[in-house]
Amino acid sequence: MNTEQTGTLTNGSRKPPHKRKRGWYAQSAVAFRWLHIYLSMLSFAALMFFAFTGLTLNHPTWFGAGEQTTRDATGELPLNLLNPTVDKLEIAEQLRSQHQLRGRVAEFEVDAYECMLVFKGPGYAADAFVTRESGQYTLSVTSTGMMAIMNDLHKGRDSGVAWSIVIDVSAIFMILVSLSGFGLLFFIKKRRAMGFLVAFLGTILLIAAWLAWVP
């Protein structure tokens, strides 16, 4: 038999073309399966969190997400922090320390008579108004339950740069999990046609729902 036609050498140093192709095919299938499984497991908690809070965001009264509590407080700050210049950092830190405030300082406005600063975090806000002449201030703190905090985390509201990166990474994982699952269909002959048909049908249904029901 002609070895050039079969793609093999008599010493066995080269595999037949069909075997090489089959080896690449099998390795690719294993790679996609590996990616899909372990990407899914790595991002499992994030996927469940954003899926669940996506549902509760659509129903804001579920699980007491609409409940909130408010507390008020008053006090006095040293005048040297307010006049002749306003020490924004020290004012914020003293208020944070005295009243166990959390979140970041989202706003800090100063005029000739008063300072106004706002602390914000997921499901949390604290507004302080400080009179520059006397140093006296009023404080109002509004906080919500865990469900409302989770909803704010889903939206990235007042959650900081680090959490924003977490949201981006989670979104990338969701894309990769979906693509690896889609790619895996190419290596499952018995399910390939039906899988692609279902994916196409799901896309059409999504577009139809958007066109039919979104004002």
Task: Kindly give the count of domains.
Answer: 2
Oligomer: single chain
Q: Calculate the mean pLDDT score and round it.
A: 89
Give the tally of β-strands: 5
Number of helices: 7
Summarize the topology.
Layout: H1 3-6, H2 17-42, H3 44-58, E1 68-76, H4 88-99, E2 104-110, E3 114-121, E4 124-131, E5 136-144, H5 146-155, H6 160-184, H7 189-213
Antiparallel strand pairs: 1-5, 2-3, 3-4, 4-5
Helix pairs in contact: 2-6, 3-5
Description:
InterPro entries: PepSY_TM-like_2 (IPR032307). With 215 residues, the chain is an alpha+beta fold. The chain folds into two domains: 16-60 and 150-213, no CATH class; 68-144. The chain is 54% helix and 19% strand. The chain has helices spanning 3-6, 17-42, 44-58, 88-99, 146-155, 160-184, 189-213; strands at residues 68-76, 104-110, 114-121, 124-131, 136-144. It has a five-stranded antiparallel beta sheet. Helix 2 runs antiparallel to helix 6 (160-184) and helix 3 packs across helix 5 (146-155).
Short description:
The protein is built from seven helices and five strands. It is α+β, with helices and mostly antiparallel strands. The chain has two domains: 16-60 and 150-213, no CATH class; 68-144.
Features of the shown structure:
215 residues; alpha+beta; five-stranded antiparallel sheet; 7 helices
